[in-house]
Amino acid sequence: MRSGVRDISVQLTPQEEELFDVLTKTLEHEKLDTVLRCAGGWVRDKLLKKESHDIDIAIDNKMGQKFAEHINSYLSSRDMKTGKVAVIMSNPDQSKHLETARMTVAGLELDLVNLRSEKYADQTSRIPTMEFGTPEEDALRRDFTINSLFYNINTRSVEDFTGKGLDDLLEHRMIQTPLPAEDTFRDDPLRVLRAIRFGARFGFKL
Fold it and tell me: Which pLDDT belongs to residue 10?
C-alpha cells in the first residue's frame, strides 16, 4: 500500500487546533489504537488557503457513533461540555449498516465516519455495497483526486494515497478521477456535473 505521506504544512485556526487537541487526547484517555484523518473537502480547501467548515473525520477501526461516545467520555472526564450526537444511517442494503455520526466539538460541526470501500456485485451493477476499507481504498473510491487527500490528525501530516491529488491540486490545477474516468462517471453520472462545477469554482482544467 502506498503511504502517500507528504511534508506539507496545513495552517490550522485556533478552533481547529482545539478540536484536534480534543480528538488526540480522546485517543490517549480512552486508550484507543485508532488513526483519525480529516478527509475530502476540508483538506483540499486548507491546502488552497481557503476557509473551510466541512470537517469529515475518517476513522480506521471504529464506527462513527462509537467514536463520538469516546469523545464525550473524554470531555466528561475533564468537566467539559459534551456534544449531542446525531446518527445518520446509511441504506442497510448497500452499506452493511455503516453510519455517519454528527456532533459539535470546540464550536465546529464534524461528521465521523469509518474508512470505506466500494464493492460491486458484478460488472453490470451500478449500485455499490459499502464496506470497511483501508485509507487507499477510501481515497480511490472518491470522485476526484483533489478530494481524495487526507490530513492525518495523529501525525499532523498530509496523505495522498492516489499519488496524484497533491500534484493535481497545487501544480497541475486539474480535475481528474482517481480511477479511470469512464468507470467513475459510469458509476455516478452526476460526477460529470461536479467536475464542471469544481473546474469553474477553482479555475482548474478538466
Answer: 92
**188 a catalytic residue:** no
Query: Is 56 annotated as catalytic?
Result: yes
Listed in sequence order, the residues at least 6 apart from 59 whose beta carbon sits closer than 8 Å to its beta carbon are 34, 35, 36, 67, 112, 113, 114, 115
- Alpha carbon distance 88, 102 (integer Å): 8
From residue 53, how far is each of 13, 149, 201 by CA, in Å? 11, 16, 17
Question: What percent of the chain is predicted at pLDDT more than 70?
Answer: 87
Mean pLDDT of all residues in the chain? 89
Would you list the domain boundaries of the chain? 5-165
Which of 56, 60, 167, 187 is the catalytic position? 56
* Dihedral (Cα; 101, 166, 24, 85), 10-degree rounding: -10
166 CB contacts (<8 Å, ≥6 apart)? 6, 8, 47, 149, 158, 160
Please state which CATH class domain 5-165 belongs to.
alpha beta
Catalytic residue among 54, 60, 167, 187: 54
